[in-house]
Amino acid sequence: MATLLRSKLSNVATSVSNKSQAKMSGMFARMGFQAATDEEAVGFAHCDDLDMEHRQGLQMDILKSDASEEGAEPSLEGDIHYQRDGTGPLPPSASKDAGGCSELSSQGKPKITAWEAGWNVTNAIQGMFVLGLPYAILHGGYLGLFLIIFAAVVCCYTGKILIACLYEENEDGEIVRVRDSYVDIANACCAPRFPTLGGRIVNVAQIIELVMTCILYVVVSGNLMYNSFPNLPVSQKSWSIIATAVLLPCAFLKNLKAVSKFSLLCTLAHFVINILVIAYCLSRARDWAWDKVKFYIDVKKFPISIGIIVFSYTSQIFLPSLEGNMQNPKEFHCMMNWTHIAACILKGLFALVAYLTWADETKEVITDNLPSTIRAVVNIFLVAKALLSYPLPFFAAVEVLERSLFQDGNRAFFPNCYGGDGRLKSWGLTLRCALVVFTLLMAIYVPHFALLMGLTGSLTGAGLCFLLPSLFHLKLLWRKLLWHHVFFDVAIFVIGGICSVSGFIHSLEGLIEAFRTNAED
């Protein structure tokens, strides 16, 4: 009897000790410190998804203990924000007691190498929007080339300091990862007075950028098809409507598995197209108009070119998730260096060679300058790439809207758009269809690729790539920064702000004028 009593007391003491330890660990995890136990490895601090899994496991410890005492099974509301690559809440069955990064990655997402991370960044900053860069050289001359280099340097630097904002020193002086996303960084900067304001600003900027990207895909599809078959009695607006009809099934997407299969082929096809354009331009090297490249700028249109160049480098919004999924996060800086150096060289050469070939005849989308025999083939491939690329930003925008407005627990503004069985409700599907139609209406009334790209780059591109990273870096790591880092951050914030405001004003003026012209027609 005494032995049984001692055994029960020992079990109770162990249970209380474990529960207390879990609560303390959960408290330190929410404060940003990784309180490692005998079953946990410090590698959690260096992995994005694994860190979230660790925190969720600690919370599940407490909830399961409480449920076992009360006979109920409470629900868990994860504190996880959306990232562009589709990372989201892990299932409650996620293991919390696995050891390090490699062991957990075998159970969850496989970690990526620095080369694979570099490929993702390259896809983001070497997309089909480089087709508008020669048009930027048309209005900027050599200064436009300088801006292509300058934007690469600045975006590489701000990407690094954005990742630095994810880390802090714990009580032992170790650098640990205490934040998971861009939204977390923004919320940390606005805390404690406005703990969610920063995240809402970043989410709004992200939604604007994603929706504008969708609009640009519709615009470029209509533009390319119209210029590929000018003899057909079909206007650019009609081609945009046809493209949107093809894209309407995107409203029914539940995941991107089917679309992702084509992403690699689309990217390779785009590189082939760029090579074909450069090859054609090199074949006309004897006729290059070097005298057309000037040092003067078009004051009215050059600010639009700034937005075009900045938009072609936007990748900061998904860098936190990308770095967290790397096998060796220490290679992130090196990866950023070589990807942006390669992008700078390729973009500069592509823009200069294309402009030298057509000079003052350079159009908003450079493939429209190709001879009709080559243009049709190249443009059809580009349209296919645009249509297959559309679901990615569309699905991301839908995810952000649904999570922030319909699925954010008690903070949601509207009831959940999904039923108890996980199926999308009819009005939720209507909202998705409305978003597709909205991109069509914008593409019809403002069918100007360069203006829309310049507006997006000046508004969200400059904000997410220049202004916010430098501001967050100063706010979170002020006491640890060297003087030259402070100087760089302040300079980037000031220069980025000036470029953003001027580009936004001129792009908006151009869009208003274009809207009025189309309304009159």
UniProtKB/TrEMBL annotation:
Main location: membrane
The keyword Transport belongs to this UniProt entry's keyword annotation: yes
Topology with respect to the bilayer: Multi-pass membrane protein
Keyword entries, A-Z: Cell projection, Cytoplasmic vesicle, Membrane, Neurotransmitter transport, Synapse, Transmembrane, Transmembrane helix, Transport
Protein name, UniProt field: Vesicular inhibitory amino acid transporter
Domain Amino acid transporter transmembrane stretches: 111-507
Gene Ontology cellular-component terms listed: cytoplasmic vesicle membrane; inhibitory synapse; presynapse; vacuolar membrane
Keyword Transmembrane helix: yes
A biological process from GO: neurotransmitter transport
Role played: Antiporter that exchanges vesicular protons for cytosolic 4-aminobutanoate or to a lesser extend glycine, thus allowing their secretion from nerve terminals. The transport is equally dependent on the chemical and electrical components of the proton gradient. May also transport beta-alanine. Acidification of GABAergic synaptic vesicles is a prerequisite for 4-aminobutanoate uptake.
Pfam families per record: Aa_trans (PF01490)
Family statement drawn from the similarity comment of this UniProt entry: Belongs to the amino acid/polyamine transporter 2 family.
Subcellular location(s) of the protein: Cytoplasmic vesicle membrane; Presynapse
GO molecular function: gamma-aminobutyric acid:proton antiporter activity; glycine transmembrane transporter activity; L-amino acid transmembrane transporter activity
